[in-house]
Every structure is written in structure tokens, then in C-alpha cells.
From TrEMBL:
This is Probable 3',5'-cyclic-nucleotide phosphodiesterase. GO terms for biological process: cAMP catabolic process; negative regulation of glucose mediated signaling pathway. It comes from Brumicola pallidula DSM 14239 = ACAM 615. The gene is cpdP. SUPFAM superfamilies: Metallo-hydrolase/oxidoreductase. CDD domains: class_II_PDE_MBL-fold. Pfam families: PDEase_II. The chain crosses the membrane at residues 26-45.
Length: 357
């Protein structure tokens, strides 16, 4: 229930109550109180209609082909989203369905396909691809024959890789509307020029794409905006200190005013390896130590570190290990918390998990 509607109902009840005899006045007064406390209990004043729903479709950065990087991001409470990367789609949708994180009621009764089919074709309105590495697009390619027509958003070098390396009739049929003939025309490439904001078609959201440095390969930070709120979804990236670049610093500069206004709802950032990996073997990836270093850089740019307290930081692209012993996700969280002087809320995601931020 929206705040405006709650206020309207409350005003109507109070107005009518004034005209009533004393006994019935008490009944109406009680109704007003119930609505008021209900709103507090459900936190409706602060969250009504705001923020994002995020669903992890793929949380890892390798080894398992069914759990590669992909996150659905949509305006809270609306059955629509865009995918930030598409390393995996169907396995993740099924995991979210099994976990009860998609309501079966979003699928119209007469819709001919399963709930998974509905989500793939109707709920996902487009794909934001951070870079052309296989682990960020494999799910889109494999699901493409059964997908519906929609846009693929990316920076130009990434669109080129998709067109030349995948939808080229050698690796896979060309499901795009441009590139090698014949073009099957299902996906429209939408070029995101750096730092200019664009609409995400068929959604109320906007996106800005800023380039990242992934060991010399162009990767992308997507800043997704809905009303006054933003979520930042970062693709694979090295740390500025190691890449000798300013790419992450530019992202932090770009969002600093939103952080100051309390409008940054969550960051999705990679940490591929644990701290034991030497810097010269990171190949354009982050570790817990480097994630904390970059968050401190953001705090320094914002100027008020306490504004990052409790910020949800989803750790993506964790490379699983075949070694015996402790789970890499557990080691990752321990190492992240060790340097968590900002007191952000680190989240090690599970496939199919859903959050409202
Ligand atoms: Zn990569
Ligand atoms: Zn990757």
C-alpha cells in the first residue's frame, strides 16, 4: 500500500469519525490506530514502492556451468527486471522458483509456458552485459532459441565481442538484429555510450554504463536508477592500484552524491579469489582485501564513512575451488569481515536468493 493511499484512507476515516456518535467514534479511532501500527510493523513508511528487488541467478565465477554470474534487478514489487550479466539463466530461475522467490501468480492462467518460461520470456526485459567473457553470457546464448525479443545493452567493445565471437553462425546462430547475415532478429544491440543515462526499455528504470579495467579488457559498471534510488552492478574488474587505472575511482565519483543522499541501495562487486592469491596472478580480479580497499576509496570520496554503514554489498563471481577443506565462500566472508572497518553488510549470495533493498 502506497503512503499517499494510506494517508488518504486515514483522512477519510477521521473526517467521517467526527460526524459520528461517541460509541462509533471509538470504533473508527481504533481502525485508524490499527492501520497506523500496521504501517510501522511492515515498514511501509520508509519502503513503500521504493528500492529494488534483486535475485541471484548465478553467483560463481567458474567451474560450474549452471551457476555463472547473473543478477536480476527490478523495481520493488513489480514483476519485471533486467539481468546484470547472463552467465546462467534457466538454472537460476528454477532455483529461485524452487525457493519460492517468484510467485506463481505472476504468470497469467492462460499463459502456455511454465513459470520458468514466463520469467525468461516476459519478466526479464533486457540484458546488461558487463563484458564478453563466456562466463557472463553463456546462459543468454544457450537459452536464446526459447527467449523472446529484447535488447542487449552494453558498451561498444562488448557488443562487438558478442556479435563477432558468439552470434556469428560459427559459435551459434546469429539471434541478433545486426551482424552476420542472415540475422534472426531476436536481440537488438543497444550501445551504451559511457556516462550518458539511457532508458531500460519496458521498465521504469534508467542505466548509466561506466568502463572498468579487467586486465586490459573492457568491463562495465552499470548504475541502475529507479525513482531516486540506485544499485551498482560491477562486472569483473581489477583494483585501480593494480590496473594502474582510475576506472573504479570514476565510478565512486559518479555515485558520490547519491551515497550522500542515502540513495545507494546496494553494490554488487566481485571477489574472485581469496587474499592468498598474489597480485600478479589476479588477471584483473579482486580479493577481499582489495574489495575493502576500494570501498574505503569510495568512503574517502564520499567524505562520510558512516554513510556506508550497513550498505548491502553482494559479493559476486567467487571462483569455486576443487581443493579439499573449507568452503571458499566461508574463507571469503572471514577475510572480508577482517577488513570491514566501514561496517558494510557483506552478502555471500546463494543461487536463487532474493533481496529487497
Ligand atoms: Zn571476465
Ligand atoms: Zn568472469
Amino acid at each position: 500500500m502506497g503512503i499517499a493511499r494510506i494517508k488518504l484512507i486515514s483522512i477519510k476515516i477521521v473526517t467521517r469519525a467526527w460526524r459520528l456518535p461517541a460509541s462509533r467514534f471509538h470504533v473508527y479511532y481504533a481502525v485508524v490506530l490499527v492501520i497506523f501500527f500496521n504501517c510501522i510493523a511492515t515498514n511501509a513508511w520508509s519502503k513503500a514502492g521504493g528500492g529494488f528487488d534483486i535475485i541471484a541467478l548465478g553467483t560463481e565465477g567458474g567451474l560450474r556451468s549452471g551457476n555463472l554470474s547473473a543478477y536480476l534487478i527490478g523495481p520493488h514489487g513489480q514483476s519485471l527486471s533486467v539481468a546484470c550479466d547472463a552467465g546462467n539463466l534457466i538454472d537460476g530461475i528454477e532455483a529461485a522458483v524452487d525457493a519460492g522467490n517468484f510467485s506463481a501468480t505472476i504468470r497469467p492462467k492462460d499463459y502456455p509456458l511454465s513459470l520458468t518460461g514466463y520469467i525468461l520470456r516476459e519478466h526479464i526485459k533486457g540484458y546488461l552485459i558487463t563484458h564478453g567473457h563466456l562466463d557472463h553470457i553463456a546462459g543468454l546464448i544457450i537459452a536464446s532459441p526459447d527467449d523472446s525479443a529484447k535488447p542487449i545493452y552494453a558498451l561498444d567493445p562488448v557488443l562487438q565481442t558478442i556479435s563477432q565471437s558468439y552470434f556469428n553462425w560459427q559459435s551459434w546462430p546469429n539471434f541478433a538484429a545486426s551482424g552476420l547475415s542472415p540475422q534472426l532478429g531476436k536481440y537488438t544491440y543497444v550501445s551504451l555510450a559511457g556516462s550518458s543515462q539511457q532508458e531500460l526499455l519496458n521498465t521504469p528504470m534508467l542505466v548509466t554504463a561506466l568502463p572498468l579495467n579487467h586486465n586490459g579488457i573492457v568491463s562495465t559498471a552499470f548504475i541502475i536508477e529507479y525513482k531516486q534510488d540506485i544499485v551498482v552492478c560491477l562486472g569483473d574488474t581489477g583494483a585501480d592500484s593494480i590496473q594502474k587505472s582510475d576506472n573504479l575511482k570514476n565510478v565512486w565519483q559518479f555515485i558520490k552524491s547519491k551515497v550522500r543522499e542515502g540513495r545507494l541501495k546496494a553494490i554488487i562487486i566481485e571477489s574472485s579469489f581469496t587474499n592468498e592469491k598474489p597480485n600478479d596472478s589476479l588477471f584483473g580480479h579482486l580479493t577481499p582485501k582489495l574489495v575493502n580497499q576500494e570501498l574505503l576509496a569510495l568512503a574517502a570520496i564520499v567524505g562520510e564513512p558512516k554513510l556506508l554503514k550497513d550498505l548491502p554489498v553482494i559479493i559476486s563471481h567467487i571462483k569455486p575451488s576443487l581443493a579439499q577443506g573449507q568452503r571458499v565462500q566461508d574463507i571469503m566472508l572471514q577475510q572480508l569481515e577482517l577488513g570491514n572497518t566501514l561496517d558494510v553488510d557483506f552478502i555471500i549470495p546463494k543461487q536463487g536468493e532474493r533481496w529487497h533493498f
